[in-house]
Amino acid sequence: MATRKSAPATARKTTVKSGKKDFNGGTFLDFDRDTELKAYREMMLIRRFEEKAGQLYGMGFIGGFCHLYIGQEAVVVGMQMALKDGDQVITGYRDHGHMLACGMSARGVMAELTGRRGGLSKGKGGSMHMFSKEKNFYGGHGIVGAQVSLGTGLAFANRYRGNDNVSLAYFGDGAANQGQVYESFNMAALWKLPVIYIIENNRYAMGTAVSRASAQTDFSMRGASFGIPGYQVDGMDVRAVAAAAEEAVAHCRAGKGPLILEMLTYRYRGHSMSDPAKYRSKDEVQKMRSEHDPIEQVRARLLEKGWATEDELRAIDKDVRDIVADSADFAQSDPEPDVSELYTDILL
Amino acid sequence: MPRMTMIEAIRSAMDVSMERDDRVVVFGEDVGYFGGVFRCTQGLQQKYGRTRCFDAPISESGIVGAAIGMAAYGLKPCVEIQFADYMYPAYDQLTQEAARMRYRSNHQFTCPMVVRMPTGGGIFGGQTHSQSPEALFTHVCGLKVVVPSTPYDAKGLLIASIEDPDPVIFLEPKRLYNGPFDGHHDRPVTPWAGHPAADVPEGHFVVPLGEAATVREGSAVTIVTYGTMVHVAAAAAEETGIDAEIIDLRTLLPLDLEAITRSVRKTGRCMVLHEATLTSGFGGELAALVQEHCFYNLEGPVVRVAGWDTPYPHAQEWDYFPGPARVGQALKDMMEA
């Protein structure tokens, strides 16, 4: 195995605490104005995109499966802040937000949802199955937990090539119970691979609450027997996510091996479009929306600090809406793939 | 007699079996509290409690492995794999443990277990929620493989499967859950209500494993099929006016070879039809058997109509799906050959 150049460990104090369960009182990075505005815009783009996807689904333009990321926006936007060129991202089926955060075009994602030839997988993949080599996004995987091993392999490739890139392997609280996750943990720790396992704990694996299917519901501890450090992070606060991301990425770039970040987050919508969400109360959802909404938190800070006016924020909203509207128009007008595409891209 | 959808019939089969035999245990992902992703287990936890109907973590290999252990010690687990596409982590347990328990232990232990899985496409599930992996099971000695096409059969076959002494893979065509889908995706959904096979007895009955059904009698050509394609075949026969005899296998293993050969000897022509991809599909086995047993009765080659050899596409679902137009054209070609 080629050795990689070791990057110096950062001297920052730890900004995330192990075992923290509360959504409040976490440590975080102090954002400057530009960073707050960037976070606001990027989270807003994901939210508006997902709302539009939900509408198009309701109108019949999107068929089959569609899992919206609304509520969890701070996780990908915060994590992405710590990345540099060449770092890889891989995730499961609730993937639209990750792709937008990686800089993939709204048009390409939306047109894939509607199954059009301008979609990122020519319409042949659908909501759960999209990639971008240019943006180092390795999918979009419909099989729960399967991407965790792939993310581990991406990290191996980084180490083998001797670069200091880091692989981000996202999965949910449900996927955390798949056996291959622990096979991956063992290999990553054994070979000191630069991979960050990001467990997006949104409390429900489809319709099953975490406590109904998990003996250990503190997912940050899931790597303990392999010696993988793990931290719980307030996944509704983009500053807390960014702080954790910075620490974790530095840890991996320094050659210290894998790390687990459990993001305490929440999805506002059902698991998929056909989920009536009867397994939780409306009050629970409303409480999260009104007290912990990731976008509202940034918005409140921007206004409070006088870093932006209502008008300026409205202008950002309009920009974002325009991008989303354009993607929706494209996704409805772009033609479907030609029948000749049925047999392409299977083998050379 | 009550009218049931296929979902209700499957639920009723588990209900009846749990009522009659306290060794029957139902579990899987989202199966207990939530009632199953397609609602097949709705109400069972309330009725039988959390020790007999419960949620499992997303751990397919673990779910099936645990079920094998339970079965070896005399329980009768009936587990759900949420989509057949999710079974691959459990494939090791199914093929190497479940299928060989009886053989390996010199018949001291058996594996009376049912693994239910929604199979097939037609709901825009794309490549990871639409697969038809039946051939991966029929290729394994020691498993039984069942694919119902109606609510009546689903209930009777599932009860028979639960009562069977060996491991049964029970594939539920998900596009048939709510109605007898004949492949005309652009027409309004037909509900099960009104279909004769939606009349399902409330109590206990079985449809024996290994017995095919002749769902349409005909003299011109035999269509050997199962699952969703039974309804597609019927539509194609009606629309082309070709007098096809349709054999619904219902059970792929054990196979009712007698029903197939009897029909092909009568008609002299045979089409094998399934939704799964063509190459190395179960249709290849059926075609081989037909030519071995009926060669001198055949007036033309055995024709296979199947899904194309591609992943199940998202945008081109209906180009992939062997619908009535494709089946009808193949029937016409056979009659002209």
UniProtKB/TrEMBL annotation, chain A:
Question: What role does this protein play?
Answer: The pyruvate dehydrogenase complex catalyzes the overall conversion of pyruvate to acetyl-CoA and CO(2). It contains multiple copies of three enzymatic components: pyruvate dehydrogenase (E1), dihydrolipoamide acetyltransferase (E2) and lipoamide dehydrogenase (E3).
Q: How does it assemble?
A: Heterodimer of an alpha and a beta chain.
UniProt keyword tRNA-binding present: no
Task: Please write the reaction equations for the catalytic activity of this protein.
Answer: N(6)-[(R)-lipoyl]-L-lysyl-[protein] + pyruvate + H(+) = N(6)-[(R)-S(8)-acetyldihydrolipoyl]-L-lysyl-[protein] + CO2
Show the InterPro entries listed in the entry. Answer: DH_E1, PDH_E1_Alpha_Subunit, Pyrv_DH_E1_asu_subgrp-y, THDP-binding
Which GO biological process categories is it annotated with? pyruvate decarboxylation to acetyl-CoA
Kindly report, in one word, the top-level EC class recorded for this enzyme: oxidoreductase
- What EC numbers are recorded for this enzyme? 1.2.4.1
Q: Name one GO molecular function term.
A: pyruvate dehydrogenase (acetyl-transferring) activity
Q: Which PANTHER family match?
A: PYRUVATE DEHYDROGENASE E1 COMPONENT SUBUNIT ALPHA, PYRUVATE DEHYDROGENASE E1 COMPONENT, ALPHA SUBUNIT BACTERIAL AND ORGANELLAR
Give the residue range of the signal peptide.
Answer: none
Which cofactor does this sequence's record say it needs? thiamine diphosphate
Official protein name in the record:
Pyruvate dehydrogenase E1 component subunit alpha
Write the record's keywords in alphabetical order, separated by commas. Answer: Oxidoreductase, Pyruvate, Thiamine pyrophosphate
The keyword rRNA-binding is annotated on this UniProt entry: no
One Pfam annotation, family name? E1_dh
Which residue range or ranges hold the Dehydrogenase E1 component domain? 41-339
Automatic annotation (TrEMBL), chain B:
Q: Which InterPro entries match?
A: THDP-binding, Transketo_C/PFOR_II, Transketolase-like_Pyr-bd, Transketolase_C
Protein's UniProt keywords contain Oxidoreductase: yes
Gene Ontology molecular-function annotations: branched-chain 2-oxo acid dehydrogenase activity
Q: Which organism is it from?
A: Gellertiella hungarica
Write down the required cofactor(s).
thiamine diphosphate
Give its E.C. classification number.
Answer: 1.2.4.4
Its GO biological process terms? branched-chain amino acid catabolic process; response to nutrient
Protein name, as recorded: 3-methyl-2-oxobutanoate dehydrogenase (2-methylpropanoyl-transferring)
Q: Does this UniProt record's set of keywords contain Cell division?
A: no
